[in-house]
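User: My collaborator sent over this chain with a note saying "see what the structure looks like." That's all I know about it. Can you take a look?
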Amino acid sequence: MKNAIVSIITPCFNSEKYIAETIQSVLNQTFQNWEMIIIDDGSTDRTKEIITDFIKIDLRIQLFPLDKNSGAAKARNLGINQASGHYMTFLDADDIWFPDFIENSIKTIDEVGIHFVFSSYKRANEKLEFVYSDFIVPQNVSYSSILKSNSISCLTAFIDIKTLGKKTMPEITKRQDMGLWLQYLKEIPFAYGIQDAKAIYRIRKNSLSRNKTNLLRYQWQFYREIEKLNFFESSYYMLHWIIRGLIKYCN
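Assistant: Without extra context I'll predict from the sequence alone. Here is the result:
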């Protein structure tokens, strides 16, 4: 563990309200051998200034600004390409890790021998009030189960890229993280789910992930165009997606 380096990839866009809390949660980690790769996706507020202030006190934080807003997939892929660590993980600019997130993820990989792990997390509103129930992940997920319902959130996915290699996300508007998980799950039996909540997912009213307009149409396109599933396979997984989505967001 002492020689391991964890590459943390954080895309951000106009995140001045939250980015300091996110960075501070990384600084508070019990495991300290990390690099934080922040990709600013064309912010027009004070996001870059806030990040620069942190860089002045900790050079493990790196900033890669994009000239124009290009979307989360391109921003994350830039971060993936820059990653130099043994492990790769993601933390969006409005989410927070608990102090033992990194340490526990590495420990779990060592103990279970699975090189892709992810954790449960707490769900909060914009003020970090826990008005939603915790999201407790299944103990393991396979390629097939992810197609039914994506239980792996970007803020807790933790991948041993020295063993599994680097892969990039499909450059699509939504589900780009799911596209990345599926690439790994085509090559390994399953990813291992840590039951304890190790992060806080901040649910914002106008976030892209909470906008359900045309979401089913997009999910269908994902099955057909990204995963190249046939009509019957896509219909099967879509039915599961709808049922499990209703259960997930009603809690």
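A starting point for your reply to your collaborator: The chain has a mean pLDDT of 93.
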